[in-house]
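Predict the holo structure. Ligand: 5CA.
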Amino acid sequence: MRLSRYFLPLLKESPAEASIASHNFMLRAGMVKQNTAGIYTWLPLGHKVLKKIEQIVREEQNRAGAVEMLMPTIQPAELWRETGRYDAYGPEMLRITDRHEREMLYGPTNEDMITDVFRSFVRSYKDLPQMLYHIQWKFRDERRPRFGVMRGREFLMKDTYSFDLTEDTARQSYNKMFVAYLNTFARLGLKAVPMRADTGPIGGDLSHEFIILAETGESEVFCHKDLVDMAAPGLDVDFGGDLQALVDERTALYASTEEMHDADEFAKVPADKQLSARGIEVGHIFYFGEKYSAPMKATVMDKDGKPVTVKMGSYGIGVSRLVGGIIEAFHDDKGIIWPKSVTPFGAGIINLKAGDEDVDAACETIYSALSKAGVDPLYDDKADRGGVKFSRMDLIGLPYQIVVGPRGLKTGEVEVKDRASGERQNLTLDAAINFVTEAYG
Ligand code: 5CA
């Protein structure tokens, strides 16, 4: 992409409403625009990152055996009346009336609707287990939408729902999502710690929140330090096998959100391993058995022809929240520092003298080579001064910058800067192209 043809509306000043780094940088880097409280337009740069995160989440869901579908954003109130949640949910639910005076709502989550889909089609134990997911916008009329996309009112969530015949196999479905989440967050460059959590309006008796540590996080958390650096299970995990040991390895160590915190248990963690910190909840998984399937009569016939109420769990990831969460984890005072897996463009090319024949030609060579190699470069071909270009590129945070100027070109060289470390090296055009291409290899 050539910057001169892109839509990248940068802000010069820090907006007053942004109290944390991610919100500030997302507005300044032209990633989002607020339309009204907690509701955002995803501008091209932000949209690209959102879609990259969504794709990684999708790939890891598929790997774990979940099957993608898509449910609507607008739901009929009847379904929520069946489970008693229409009244229980309170003012967070956006309620809508259609032209026929039918009560509708903009879905804050989908347990009730997926249970209806399930009971419409599945009749036999032979069709279990099932694990279905979608990636869809949700609406929650949060009392205090804040921190930009981190606590929005409209937000993008991946939500998976599992259906099992027994509690035992339901536990295995829970474990699959537990492990898939560890791998998903690791691919996003994040260290997410699973912590015992309260179940809130979703309900149930077993639940973990996946938390990334950040000073600006909304949740207070307590955990054993070793959990923070524990490596993810890895993409070669056998999701058909028993995952209990992988889960136990983590749940054996103390980790809890404030709501479930037990100070006496935490005191048993060796003092030098006790970590009390703040964190951002990027995922939340629940096992709630028959909470929805019993009132909605979602049953299957077992092998003796007797009806059995299915056991369910639900598993959410805050896809749009992750954009902010990743920036909280990766930035400096100049701007964002994207992990390679979600960066909106693979590298930036800075033309220090647009209009100069040699500089333009060198930039074009690099631009076309990196494009062909699938690196997806952003070429700053605009006529601005060097200083403006450097700070713009630092702000939007692409992992590599290739700086092309007349002085370097005299000896056939360009400068490659690593955004994270700040390290610079002078390389020939070919070497620069190879270096960046291989970094994504
Ligand atoms: N139905 C269940 C799981 S599918 C559910 O709704 N769980 S949740 O309420 O915990 O939400 C799942 C994830 O969505 C959270 O972990 C969080 O990352 C994200 N999320 C929740 N509320 C918001 C919000 N207001 N803004 C942005 N992300 C949110």
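The mean pLDDT is 97. The pocket of 5CA is lined by residues 109, 111, 140, 142, 151-152, 155, 157, 159, 202, 281-284, 286, 314-316, 318, 320-321 (CB under 6 Å).
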